[in-house]
Automatic annotation (TrEMBL):
CDD domains: TM_PBP2. GO terms for cellular component: plasma membrane. This is Binding-protein-dependent transport systems inner membrane component. It comes from Candidatus Moduliflexus flocculans. It is a multi-pass membrane protein. It comes from the Bacteria. The chain crosses the membrane at residues 14-43, 77-98, 110-131, 161-184, 211-233, 239-259, 271-290. GO terms for biological process: transmembrane transport. Keywords: Cell membrane, Membrane, Transmembrane, Transmembrane helix, Transport. It is found in: Cell membrane. Belongs to the binding-protein-dependent transport system permease family. Residues 73-287 form the ABC transmembrane type-1 domain.
Length: 298
């Protein structure tokens, strides 16, 4: 009897393993193996042709001494600091508006989500046409000029504004995602919390948002901070299409640095990609740790 029970449990476990085996194999091929190979290449000197030559930590030491690498690190941080809060704030604002019972809210939800269906390449070309200042003026600079205002020369001599323009495009393109996630979070809040708050004298509006809605949206916000940070720091298309890393390397993020180094310096490029991967991993772990310390159950 005991033997038959053991065999029955074994068959059940085997069936479970067989169900997850295809997914495990795919994860191993398309995720685990590329990561291991990336780390392997980062310790070698290797062009696009020829055989790899082991050089130890030389590629990482080169990065530590490379001014362009550190410039790319700071550009990545600057990009994330601007883009992540902008996406989250705009997505939350739209979600709060569209969570109310207003005429045509389903239509507005669709309109605000449509940019998510557009590729970053198409969005970058569109915003370049709207914002360009050279060799011809785009729609917005012409509008500024008609009112006697000057528009920043972000493509030539004003590098700080170049990143702002990329963030504008990225926020317009990606805020639909944060809006949808926040809408799901808002609709999952039990209405009894608002009823109890009203009995306790909390006024609808800012007070209710501050003391009821915002704390209950903490898990949703945490999810969005993690995902938008990862999506932002690995972003390549916005930089490539709108500025190609310029002007003067001001928008050359780590991903773009990896792209520039890849053809002839695969070892250096892989080392930079490994550093980026490690930085994102550490940031994600830190966010999880901070969230656990602040976690509150209502």
């Amino acid at each position: 009897m005991a033997t038959s029970n053991f065999m029955l449990k074994g068959k059940k476990h085997l069936a479970g393993f067989l169900f997850v085996l295809p997914a495990t194999v795919l994860v191993g091929i398309f995720l685990v193996y590329p990561i291991i190979f990336l780390i392997y290449v980062s310790f070698h000197k290797w062009g696009i042709l020829g055989t790899p030559k082991f050089v130890g930590w030389d590629n990482y030491l080169f990065l530590m001494k490379d001014a362009r690498f550190w410039k790319a690190v700071w550009a990545t941080i600057y990009y994330a600091v601007l883009a992540v809060p902008a996406q989250i704030a705009l997505g939350l604002f739209l979600a709060i508006l569209l969570n109310k019972k207003i005429f045509g809210r389903e239509i507005f939800r669709t309109i605000f989500f449509i940019p998510m269906a557009m590729s970053f390449v198409a969005a970058g070309i569109l915003f370049n046409w709207i914002l360009t200042t050279t060799p011809m003026m785009g729609f917005l600079p012409k509008l500024f000029e008609s009112f006697g205002l000057s528009f920043p020369q972000w493509q030539t001599n004003n590098p700080n504004w170049a990143m702002v323009m990329i963030v504008l495009m990225n926020t317009w393109k990606s805020s639909g995602y944060t809006m949808v996630i926040y809408l799901a979070g808002l609709q999952s809040i039990n209405i009894s919390y608002y009823e109890a708050a009203q009995i306790d004298g909390i006024e609808p509006g800012w007070e209710r948002f501050r003391y009821i809605t915002w704390p209950l949206l903490a898990p949703t916000t945490f999810l969005l901070v993690v995902t938008t940070t990862v999506f932002t720091v690995r972003g390549f298309e916005p930089i490539y299409v709108m500025t190609a890393g310029g002007p003067a390397g001001a928008t050359s993020t780590l991903v773009y640095y990896v792209y520039n180094k890849f053809p002839n310096l695969m070892g250096t490029s892989s080392a930079a990609a490994t550093v980026l991967m490690g930085g994102v991993l550490l940031l994600t772990v830190a966010q999880f740790a901070a969230n656990r310390r602040k976690e509150t159950y209502f």
